[in-house]
Design brief:
Radius of gyration: 27 Å
Shape: elongated
Structural class: alpha+beta
Strand order of the largest sheet: 1-2
Number of helices: 3
Helix content: 25-40%
Largest sheet: 2 strands, antiparallel
Distance between the termini: 86 Å
């Protein structure tokens, strides 16, 4: 009963789920517990046809074990911002200092 309750509170994608799916993996859990900070020495075959699809499927399934969750990202800005004054770009530069004889062209 307690193990069932513990599994329910950890939810899908918990560190326990990751350990069960990849028992040979070398993992490091956060000092506070509840999430993984590192995992290596495992393969996750069959999650996707391309590297990107595999990464997305892995994060969807096990991201919570690492403290990662999905969120909506705002769309990129397509229109350029309106300028409040005329801009003409970089026109000239003022260089100050003493020349170093060994660095000046001859």
């Amino acid at each position: 009963m307690i193990s069932l309750l513990l599994a329910a509170t950890l939810g899908p994608g918990s560190p326990a789920d990751f350990r069960a799916a990849f028992p040979a993996a070398s993992i490091v859990e956060s000092p506070a517990g509840g999430r993984l900070t590192h995992a290596s020495g495992f393969e996750a075959p069959g999650l996707g046809d391309t590297p990107e699809a595999t990464a997305r499927a892995f994060l969807a399934k096990y991201g919570a074990a690492f403290g990662i969750r999905a969120r909506t990202v705002p769309p990129i800005m397509i229109n350029t911002p309106t300028q409040i004054h005329m801009t003409s770009g970089f026109r000239c530069a003022l260089m100050m200092g003493r020349p170093v004889p060994s660095l000046t062209p001859s």
